[in-house]
């Protein structure tokens, strides 16, 4: 295929694709930022236990991850635009229908299954696909920026959702999220092209040799065969182990249970939600900086440092909770925010170096382990809170898991010069 790069553009279309992807991820993040502030209202209205609500959280987080590799394969087969636009509509429908639920199983089906599949179709596999197709230069930086879209979505939505819940109830918040997802659909359809060749361009900073032809095999078959091939590689399992811990200690523990844990110590839910939004601010900075570092330093060492710092901060968290926001809890928020998903750019880089063109789908499976870890931690933390009346054991358990992730990261070998080929 001959693609002649155009010279009459001041902005390479790769950056427009990245911008549309950023907005799509923000739309998906709108719903993912709401569970923590809706736990108490659902408990108060329906009388469901924290553990019961945590089942829906766990299903959502698990499907958010398990869907990712299949979504990456669907993007190969049908194109990014169709998959992302359909996923946004699914999120809107699932979130909107929650206003009619009357039983906990409906919460699991809508909040857990429908929205889990929708948001999973726009998870980190989307970032890996867009970065892999559209960029050769600046891959680490762009992956950091796109990953930070989750933080930006949290930053935009979380305080607003908390205030909507406080003033208008959780149903108004669910409808707000539904509308936000729908607003992004036309933007995706207009600006998110599938490949550089669609607009007569080469990947940003790349050449003809960097153009990867689309794969035409079935999406499910491609996802499974890629998993089977990757499972033979030791690096895959070490990345899976580390990302399981990453998900457990971010989406599983902090995003799902920080607000109710702070509320246990007398802090208003709106205040705790605002603190999580500050996590989003510093996550934006930390993730972009991590992408910059990933272009320059050994990603294995970066991962080990990130997990070590995260474990220390979790171990120090329990005595910091109180009714008021003081310097110590604010310091934790800043520190944890900088480290929140700083792990993503180096993990993507390790996938690319080890698995080559199949890296987006492989990363989809690695990200699935992230969300299984999140589901595990969200459920266990809720059960711990019901059984012991406190989250302390959950925070200390997360710190121990981070220590294991440090070991796994340092055990990754340097990738061979030629990455593993795509499965036949």
Task: Characterize the structure shown.
By secondary structure, the protein is mainly α. 75% of the residues lie in helices and 0% in strands. It has 16 helices and no strands. It has helices at residues 13-32, 35-46, 50-78, 80-97, 104-120, 124-134, 139-168, 170-191, 219-230, 234-264, 269-294, 299-315, 327-339, 344-355, 359-388, 392-410. The longest helix has 31 residues, at 234-264. The chain is globular and about 60 Å long. 58% of the residues are buried. Residues 417-424 have low confidence and may be disordered.
Characteristic terms for this protein:
424 residues, mainly alpha, 75% helix
Largest sheet: none
**How large is the share of residues in beta strands?**
under 5%
Distance between the termini: 21 Å
Low-confidence stretches: 417-424
The number of strands is: 0
Average residue-wise pLDDT: 82
- Helix percent reads over 70%
The shape, in one word, is globular
SSE layout:
Layout: H1 13-32, H2 35-46, H3 50-78, H4 80-97, H5 104-120, H6 124-134, H7 139-168, H8 170-191, H9 219-230, H10 234-264, H11 269-294, H12 299-315, H13 327-339, H14 344-355, H15 359-388, H16 392-410
Helix pairs in contact: 1-4, 1-6, 1-7, 1-8, 2-3, 2-10, 3-4, 3-5, 3-6, 3-9, 3-15, 4-5, 4-8, 6-7, 6-15, 7-8, 7-11, 7-14, 10-11, 10-14, 10-15, 10-16, 11-13, 11-14, 12-13, 12-14, 12-16, 14-15
